[in-house]
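F.,

This is the one I mentioned.
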C-alpha cells in the first residue's frame, strides 16, 4: 500500500519541479523584458527633455528604417508620449504576469504540502 502513495508523491514532486523551473525561466524573462523596457523609458524621457529645450522652429527628423522623415516638434513629442504610455502599459502587464506566475508556484507547493500532511495523518 505504501508503494502507490510513494509513486503519487514522486509524480507530484516531479511535476512541481518542472513547473518551478518553467516558472523561474518565465520570471527571469519577464525581469529582462522589464529591465529593457525601463531603458527604453529612460531613453524616451531623456529625448523628450532634450527636445523640449529646442526652439519650436527647429527641424526635427524621425528615424524610419534607413531613412529620416522631417516631423514637427509637436509630432515628435506626441510620438514620444505615446511610446512612453505603451512602455508603461507593457511594464505593468509584465509585473502582473510575474505576480501570477509566482502565485501559481506557491499554490502548487501548498498543494503538495497538504498532500504530505494528509498522508502522514493516515
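My design for it:
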Amino acid at each position: 500500500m505504501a508503494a502507490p502513495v510513494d509513486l503519487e508523491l514522486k509524480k507530484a514532486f516531479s511535476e512541481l519541479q518542472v513547473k518551478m523551473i518553467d516558472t523561474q525561466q518565465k520570471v527571469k524573462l519577464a525581469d529582462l523584458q522589464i529591465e529593457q523596457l525601463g531603458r527604453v523609458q529612460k531613453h524616451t524621457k531623456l529625448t523628450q527633455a532634450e527636445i523640449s529645450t529646442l526652439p519650436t522652429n527647429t527641424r526635427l527628423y524621425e528615424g524610419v528604417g534607413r531613412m529620416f522623415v522631417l516631423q514637427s516638434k509637436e509630432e515628435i513629442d506626441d510620438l514620444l508620449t505615446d511610446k512612453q504610455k505603451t512602455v508603461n502599459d507593457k511594464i505593468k502587464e509584465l509585473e502582473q504576469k510575474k505576480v501570477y506566475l509566482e502565485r501559481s508556484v506557491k499554490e502548487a507547493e501548498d498543494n503538495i504540502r497538504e498532500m504530505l500532511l494528509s498522508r502522514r495523518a493516515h
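The first helix runs from residue 2 to 52.

Talk soon.
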